[in-house]
């Protein structure tokens, strides 16, 4: 059984042109489908969110000070 | 507007994220977001406390919600698949993408994704000050 990228690539290179084309179309189709599905929402840690808030406040304070 | 900016705007009244809402209101500009971003805020906002949740309920009504865009017909070298909907939706609908998320958007902040500027809220406020010097911010 083929499992590594190199093995699959080697096997694909041995296919006749028409089957290579078919494989390419199937891969493109499955890739499009995979990418068209919305991922689940990201879950942020409180530390991460507080980090954004602190950076945001600090940035604004700097802008106010430089006015 | 990325989830990080909306969360910061809900979590603080004195940050640049909240300032962008004031600017948008004074300039009659629209702040755009998508259902995907809304789902991220709904998932994460309780962690910031009751005041942030109440602020979110107010802020949400000020957003123009547009459809999520999941693919574009251009080559993209951007490994974070979970951020693709935000980047692609901004590319399709917005004039600028605002984010504080340096972890996922690192390398794009302060630069452009094709013709879409990717800025922090502070960079945006600074740009606004330089472009509209007479306007109070």
Structure explained in plain terms:
The complex is a heterodimer of chains A (67) and B (137). Chain A has 67 residues and is an all-alpha fold. Chain A has one domain. Helices cover 72% and strands 0% of the residues of chain A. The longest helix of chain A is centred in the C-terminal third of the chain and has 20 residues. Chain A is rod-shaped, with a radius of gyration of 24 Å. The model of chain A has no long low-confidence stretch (mean pLDDT 88). Chain B is mainly alpha-helical and 137 residues long. Chain B has one domain. Chain B contains seven helices and five strands. A three-stranded mixed sheet of chain B has the order 3-5-4. In chain B, strands 1-2 form a two-stranded parallel ribbon. In chain B, helix 1 packs across helix 2 and helix 1 packs across helix 4. The longest helix of chain B has 12 residues. Chain B starts with a helix and ends in a 6-residue tail after the last helix. The mean pLDDT of chain B is 89.
Would you summarize the structure shown here?
The complex is a heterodimer of chains A (67) and B (137). By secondary structure, chain A is mainly α. Chain A has three helices and no strands.
Keyphrases for this structure?
heterodimer; A: 67 residues; mainly alpha; 3 helices; 72% helix; rod-shaped; B: 137 residues; three-stranded mixed sheet; two-stranded parallel ribbon; 7 helices; 49% helix; globular
DSSP summary, beta strand count of chain A: 0
Secondary structure class of chain B reads mainly alpha
How many discrete structural domains of chain A? Answer: 1
Please, what is the average pLDDT of chain A? Answer: 88
Give the uncertain stretches of chain B in residue-range form. Answer: none
Helix content of chain A: over 70%
Strand content of chain A: under 5%
Largest sheet of chain B: 3 strands, mixed
Shape of chain A: rod-shaped
Q: Largest interface here, residues on each chain?
A: A-B, 25 and 36 residues
Subunit organisation of the chains: heterodimer
- The outline of chain B comes out as globular
Distance N to C terminus of chain B: 19 Å
Placed side by side, the strands forming the largest sheet of chain B appear as 3-5-4
Figure out the total of helices of chain A: 3
Helix content of chain B: 40-55%
Measured between the Cα atoms of the first and last residue of chain A, the distance is 67 Å
Mean of all residue-level pLDDT scores of chain B:
89
Derived structural class of chain A: mainly alpha
Instruction: Using the CA coordinates, give the radius of gyration of chain B.
Output: 14 Å
